[in-house]
Amino acid sequence: MKKKILLLCFGCLIMGSIFSQSLFVYGTNEVGRDEFLRAFNKNNTNVSDRAQSLREYLELYAKFKLKVKAAKELKLDTMAEQKYDMLNFRSRLESEYVIDTIVALEKTKFKKNPAVNKALLFQYADSVTLVAENRKYSIAKIVLFSFAGMSVKVNEWYNYIKEYKLNWQVYKGESYDELLERFIAKTVTEYYRKHLEDYDPEFKYQLQEFKEGNLMFEMMGRKVWNKSKDDEAALKAFYEANKDHFLWGESADVILINAKSYAYADYASENMKTGQYWKKITDNSEGMIQGDSGRYEISQLPVKPGTKLVAGAITAVLKSNTDNGASFVKLIKLYPANLQRNFDEAKSLVINEYQKQLEENWMGELAKKYPVKINKAVFDSLLK
To answer: What confidence tier does 164 reach under pLDDT thresholds 50, 70, 90?
Structure first.
């Protein structure tokens, strides 16, 4: 009994120690202050109320971590597609890194073996490229240098210089001293590049960010997006149960014209005022003018504030705030607010609301399975 109590207390001490060093824990996992801040600073570039933004992002980040945890529980990170995506991303990211040889030597704890007789080493090196057969040299198995807990023997350098010196496209008459330094740099930097995540925190974080993002999207697809897209019966049932959520605001049947410049929009407007069919105008514009007909809420339409809306009217051309484009509408029929949308009219809204419900239900399950506990003292330190 005493042993059980001691074990329990020891476990509590471990969890207490982990929790004291982290911003929050979920289940038995923890997220450190630095990891959270890195993600927050990357995704919140314009923050007016830092305290509120930190609180909101903490909630989002905790939910993100729960989704990733669920994916790992299902071993989705072992899927071939996930591994392939990760390998491709790592390869692209790795190719962008410029490796500093001096840094690589230092971080991998590179050490030359001072016991190696350089004169003897170079003496045997002469015969390596001159003699065709593989000879056994007395110093071949001596450790030449070590790094990252590994040893590189003399015979590995001999193999390198034999291949290098016999390649006339690369060999430029370098001395053995130069070739030895070249071999050291090549061996260490190649290893360093393949193990960047062990030495470069930024590289490690980017790999983690990509991997976890991919896992989160995979889980969202399985638990939310695919269900809402494929289950028409569930969507219709959700619509029927929540009809009062899917009402029209003040709306209108319109012909909506978007053009790539004010001049093209003005041209379309003037021709429609003379009775030309809008589709003929768009078809003959070589893509400079696009049109669509349908029912829109007034708040969605490119209409100047204060415009009197009358059926049959063509509104003034309105320039875009984001590019050189311009738009206007022809009003066909006006409708008052709060009319019921049918299922087809509301479908995009239904999908959006149904997805929110599915995600909310799922997050409730995850929160029970992996309780999130915030370290208030660490969080308060972020506000200072």
So the answer is: confident
